[in-house]
Structure formats: C-alpha cells, structure tokens
Amino acid sequence: xxxxxxxxxxxxSYPPNKSTQNAxxxxxxxxxxxxxxxxxxxxxxxxxxYFVVLPDLFxxxxxxxxxxxxxxxxxxxxxxxxxxxxxxIDRTIRYMRQEQGxxxxxxxxxxxGGKYVARYLKPGLLDVGYMAHPTHVEVDELKGIQGPLxxxxxxxxxx
Length: 159
What we know:
The chain is 31% helix and 23% strand. The protein has helices at 36-47, 73-77, 82-99, 112-120, 139-143; strands at residues 2-4, 8-13, 22-27, 51-55, 104-110, 128-132, 149-152. Strands 1-2-4-3-5-6-7 form a seven-stranded mixed beta sheet.
C-alpha cells in the first residue's frame, strides 16, 4: 500500500517494465482497495503492461465483507457521496499525471466505482472508461461523458 498526498491509502501495481505512461485508475466496489480480489485484478492489469492505482475512496470505511445482517448499505452510502469521493479522485488523477507522468489514463470502475468513471470521463481526466455493473449513475453523468466507454451491465429477463 502507498499513501497519496493528503493521505489516501492506495494500492499501486507496476507493469514489468515499471513504465507509468499507460495507466489505469481502478475505482473499486464498496469493499475498497484492501480486498484481495481487487488487488489481484490490479496486479493482472499491471502484468499486462499498465501502471495501476487503486485509491481508498472510503477514507478507511469500506463495507465489511463479513457484516451483520442488519448492515444498512444505503445509510453507509450517505457518507460516501460525490462531495466526499470526488476530492480523492481529483488528488489521485493529479498524482498520476503530475507525479507519475501518466500520459493516458483509463478508468475502470466496478459497481460503486462505475459512477465515478462516468463523472471523470473528460479530457485531461480519464481518457477512456470501463464500468462493470455500475450503480447510482445519473443521467446527467452519462450525458457528460466525453470519451469512449464500455459498460458491462447485468439485466434480469422476465418471461
């Protein structure tokens, strides 16, 4: 783990050649960067040639993987809306571009993180985006997208 300025706990994974030119900003689901599965995904992206940065969007308050049956995810979410999350992403992108020299940044967002791929897919921020089963993405966020985006969404079919 690495600490970004203004401290943000961050998992960083380098490609074999240690280049930071082509990068992925990995915006996690509600379980955050300490989840081993997220780290394994980041490491796989890195093994394929990308510098990967996975910041803690939740300030040390992810949803516990093992949680009580009465855990209220919607109440938790109220503490992790854009006014709290956007500054983390702003600092992370600034770090990637200015301190690490990233020339191209792809945003990869899973569930919770998908919303922020849509919010940041703009020139000078994210160059390209991918979302897997995004949640809470608003119409205005989709309308604001200014770059290529791929979406993997689950749907339920009815008879």
